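step: validate -> pass
step: tokenize input -> pass
step: predict -> running
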Amino acid sequence: MITFKTNLGDIKIELDFDNAPKTAANFKQYCEEGFYNGTIFHRIIKGFMAQGGGFESGMGEKTTRAAIENEANNGLSNTRGSLAMARTQDPHSASAQFFINLVDNTFLDFKAENVQGWGYCVFGNVVEGMDVVDKMALAETGRYGFHDDVPTNDILVESVEVA
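step: predict -> pass
step: emit ->
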């Protein structure tokens, strides 16, 4: 169990090592190393998702380890409350950034092993604190530098506990 202690409340996450072993282990390692402490949820899109894991307050980007293999072909779906890896257009570019699905986003699921079909790897679920995630979804957002959908008030990950 992973607990994200945020300035809006706690979010408890259960990782799925059976279906996404490399991705779950990668995320857990970042948590154990304290990487997410002091980061913000830097992208919130109402009716879609809340993204975090890559930036500190003021949108300073954190340095990550190497990208990991996309395990989206694992049968898991981007449903409300699921945790998935964020990435660039390259299907195998995920490192530390993740997002929590605010609604069912099954269009993000794996379809085929090509650039258009890889999808976004689900590797866990929020098991407690979805009310906190729903509070995040209400945040006022705007543009910050080159980034859109940035909360105007920081949604801060104060600390992360791994049990």
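step: describe -> DSSP finds two helices and eleven strands in the chain.
step: cleanup -> pass
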